[in-house]
Amino acid sequence: MTVPLLSLQGLTKAYPGVVANNNVSFDIGTGQVHALLGENGAGKSTLVKMIYGLVKPDSGVMLLNGSPYAPSEPRAARADGIAMVFQHFSLFDALNVAENIALGMETPPAMRDLAKRIREVSETYGLPLDPFRTVGDLSAGERQRVEIIRCLLQDPKLLIMDEPTSVLTPQEVDILFETLRKLKSEGTAILYISHKLEEIRALCDHATVLRLGENVGECVPADTSARDMAELMVGTTLQTPERSGRDLGDVALDISGLSVASPGEFGTALKNLHITVRQGEVLGIGGVAGNGQDELLAVLSGEIQTAADAVRLNGQPVGNLGPTARRRLGLLTAPEERLGHAAAPDMSLTENAMLTGSVRESLERHGFLKWREAQGFAERIIHDFDVRTPGPDNAARSLSGGNLQKFVIGREVLQRPEVLVVNQPTWGVDASAAAAIRQAILDLAANGAAVVCISQDLDELMEISDRFAALNEGRLSTPRDTRDLTIDEIGLMMGGAHGMEVAHV
Amino acid sequence: MDLSSINPVLLIASLMVAATPILLAAIGELVVEKAGVLNLGVEGMMITGAICGFAIAVETGSPWLGFGGAAIGGAALSLLFVLLTQVALANQVASGLALTLFGLGLSALLGQRYVGIKPPPTPRLDIPLLGDLPVVGPILFGHDLILYLGIALIAAVWAALKYSRAGLILRAVGESHDAAHALGYKVVRIRILAILFGGACAGLGGAYISLVRVPQWTEGMTAGVGWIALALVVFASWKPWRVLLGAYLFGGITVLQLNLQAAGVAIPVEYLAMSPYLITILVLVILSKDKSRAPASLGKIFHASH
Q1: In chain B, is it the N or the C terminus that has fewer CB atoms within a 10 Å radius of its CB?
Q2: Cβ-count burial of A341 within 10 angstroms (0-12 exposed, 13-18 middle, 19+ buried)?
Q3: Which residue has the higher pLDDT, A386 or B103?
Q4: Where are the domains of chain A?
C-alpha cells in the first residue's frame, strides 16, 4: 500500500471540561476528497485546527508523506502545502481582494504581478474575480472565491474546506464542485467538512464520521444512504418532523409594496416587497445571505419602522410601531445572530427571558420586574426545549450555539405568537435539536399561527414550509407551493449563479 | 488696531513650529489606531516626554540627547499601557485615561527641580545660501531638525501603510484581529510595537514643546495638545496627509489669533482663543464626509481563543 498523504494517528485534544478529540485516527490519500462528518461539537473544527497548526494536540502524531508533521503555526502548515478555507471567512472587509490574498501568502509578489496571477488562476478554475474590488462589497459567494484563490496560489497538496457551501446557491455549489474535481484530478487532496449529506455523497470518495470527539466509523459516501450517515453522526434513529394537514385561516401578515433602504453600510435595500401569510401557514424565504434577510427581519420586528400601512397584522396597520408594541399585538421575531441580537451575551437566561417576554408573559407591573415569574418562564423554556444548561442563572454566553438557539426560539414559541418570524432557526444546531426546533415551528403553525421562516438551508425550507419565496438583491420572488418545486427552480429563484455562467471549467 | 504689524513670513514660519507637537503626537496615535488600539494616554505620554527631554537636555547640555530621552520616556510610559491592555486585557479607554493622569502626576514629580531653568537651545538648520533667500528661506530652510523629522514621519507613515507589507499587516490587524490571527500573524506583538511607536512620537512632541516652542518647563505645560492630537486623528479619517493639514491649520490659526490679539483686533479674546478648535474641527469634518471609516477592530480587546 502506498504511503498516504496525511496520516492522523491517535490525536487527542482536551479543553477544560470537554475532550474535543479522543484518539482520532484516519488517513487522507493523495488526490482523495475526504469528508469529515459530524454534528456540532463533534470535534471537527478542533481536528482541522490541529492539522492547520492553530491548535497543538495533547497526544498523537501526524505523518505527512510518511514523515512526522507537527506545525507550530499556520505559517508552517502553509509551507508544508496545507491550505484552509475557513467557515467564517477570515477576510478583511476594508481591504481589496489582492491585499487580502497577499496577507495569506508567505512571500507575495508585487501587487501588479499578484493581480495578474489572481486573474490567471481565477480564469483557470472558473472563479471570476476582480483583484482591486473592496472585499466588503462582495457577495458571500465571491468572498469564498477570494479564500479559495488565496489557497490555490500556494499550490496546496491538501486543501481543507470547512462548511464551504453553506452560503452558496445550488448553481454556485455545482461550480465549486467542478473546481474541486479539477483540483482532485491534478492530485490535490481535499478534506471536506460538512453536514450536508447529499453533497458529500455527490463529491467525496471517503468519509470519516466523528461523534463526541471520537471516530465512530468510516464509509464510502456513494454507497451509503444519507440516512445511514446521519444516524452514524447522531448515534440514534432520527425523527423526521411531521407535518399534519391543516386548514389555512385568514391573512395574518400582509406586506404590500414595501421598499426600505438598508441602515447599514454594506446592507441591501428591500425593493417592492409583497408578502401575505395566512394563519396556519409556514412561508419559507430562501436566498443567499446578504440579499436582504437581515433587513426583512428588521422590518418585521419593528427595528426598522415604515409607513403604518406597509405592514399589516391581522388587518391592523403596524408598520410604524416599535418591537414592544408589535409583541403586544402578537408579532414575535427571533433574529439570526444569537449573541448580541437575539440574546444579550452577558445577561443570565432569566434576564434574557425577561427581555422579550415581559409584555406577553406579564413579567412586569407598573415598571417593576417580577423576577420569580421570569425565572419560571426561563425554566419552562429550558425544560420544554431541552436546553442543556445548569440553570437559568447562567449567562447566555456560556451556552453552546445550538443550546442557545433552542433557548431563543423556545422563548418566542412559548409566548404563543400569532405571527412568528424566525431567521436561520437551526443555524449551527445539530441534527436532532434542529428536528426538534422544526417540529416546534410546525406545531405552532398547526395551532393556527402564521410563521415566516427565513433560512439558507433549502432542505429545511422544503421540509417545513408550505410556500417558498427567494430573496435576491432585496427583491422577493413570487411565492410558490413547495410541493411542486425542484432544487433547480429554487436555484433560479435565488438569482442563479451570480455571474458564474461565464466560467469555463 | 494695526494689522501691518503681522509679518506673513514670520507667521508661516512660527505656525510650523506651533503645529509640530500636535503633528508628532497625532501621527504616532494614527499608527496605534490603525493597528486597532485606542490609546487615550497621548497627553500623559507627551508631558512625560516633555520633562524627560527637558531634564536630559539640561543635564547633558545636548538637545539631541534630550529628544532621544523624550522618545524613550514616552515609549516607556506606553509600556504601562501595553501591560494593561495587551497582557492584562484591560479596557483600553479606562487604561488610556489612567495613563494620562499618571503621566501628568509623574511629570510634575520629575520636574520639581527644573522649574525656571533655561534648556540648551536647539540649533536651527543653517544652510548658507538657501537660508538667506527672501520669504522661502525662513519658511522652508530656517527650522530645527525635529520639525523636518515630523514632516518626514508623515510621508514615511503614509508610504509604509500604503505600499509596504508591514503596513498591510498592520492595517489587517486593526481591521480584524481574529482574521489576522487565523492567518498566523502575531496580533499582540504587532500591536505592542505600534503602541511603543505611538509613545515615542508623543514623547518627541512633548519635548518639542518644552525644548523648542516654549522653551522651559512648567507643570502641565502640554495643556491639552495631546487631546487635540487624538481628535485630529479621528477628524483626519486616519489619513497621514490630513493629519499634517489639520495640524498646520490648527497651528496656523493659533498663531494668527495670538497675532490678532497683539494687534488689538476688536473681537473679544475668548472668541479668538476658541477659533483654532472651531475652525480645525469644521474643516476636517467637511473633509471627512467621504467613505472612510475607523479601523473595524479599534478599541476591541483581542483574546486568542483557540
Answers
A1: N
A2: middle
A3: B103
A4: 6-234, 251-497
Measure in Å the smallest separation between the Cα of A109 and chain B Cα atoms.
Answer: 10
d(CA A449, CA A8): 51
Considering only the beta carbons, identify the residue of A53, A74, A92 that sits closest to B172.
A92
Alpha-carbon gap, residue A182 to A180, rounded angstroms: 5
Nearest CB to A104 within list B183, B293, B295: B183
CB-CB neighbours of B52 under 10 Å: 29
CATH classification code of A6-234: 3.40.50.300
- Is residue B100 assigned to a domain? yes
Contact B169 A90 (CB under 8 A): no
How far A166 CA lies from chain B's nearest CA (Å)? 19
Distance CA B73, CA B48 (A): 6
| Domain extent at residue B211 | 3-124+141-287
The percent of residues above 90 in pLDDT, for chain A, comes to 22
Residue A231, amino acid = E
Contact flag B178-A90 (C-beta cutoff 8 Å): yes
Largest CA distance in chain B: 70
Q: What is the pLDDT of residue A15?
A: 79
Chain A residue numbers touching B180 (CB-CB < 8 A): 92, 103
Over residues B229-287, the pLDDT tens digits come to: 999 998 888 999 999 999 999 999 989 888 888 888 888 888 888 888 888 888 878 87
Same CATH topology for A6-234 and A251-497? yes
The answer to whether position B27 is within a domain reads yes
Fold (topology level) of A251-497: Rossmann fold (3.40.50)
Q: Which among A49, A75, A108 has CB closest to B306?
A: A49
A85 part of contact set with chain B, CB < 8 Å = no
Q: Is residue B97 part of a domain?
A: yes
Residue among A54, A78, A94 minimizing CB distance to B296:
A94
Per residue in B35-54, pLDDT (tens digit) is: 999 999 999 999 999 999 99
Predicted pLDDT at A502: 38
Report the CATH number at residue B9: 1.10.3470
Q: Which of A92, A100, A143 to mutate to test the interface with B (most CBs of B within 10 A)?
A: A92
Task: State how far residue B286 is from chain A, nearest Cα, in angstroms.
Answer: 19
Q: Which of A20-24, A312-316, B10-14, B20-24 has the highest mean pLDDT?
A: B20-24
Closest residue in B to A105 (Cα–Cα): B183
Number of domains in chain B: 1
Task: Name residues whose C-beta falls within 8 Å of residue A482's C-beta, 6 or more positions apart in sequence.
Answer: A284, A461, A462, A465, A466, A467, A468
The answer as to whether B135 is a domain residue is: no
Q: What is the pLDDT of residues B148-187, one digit of tens each?
A: 999 999 999 999 999 999 999 999 999 999 889 888 889 9
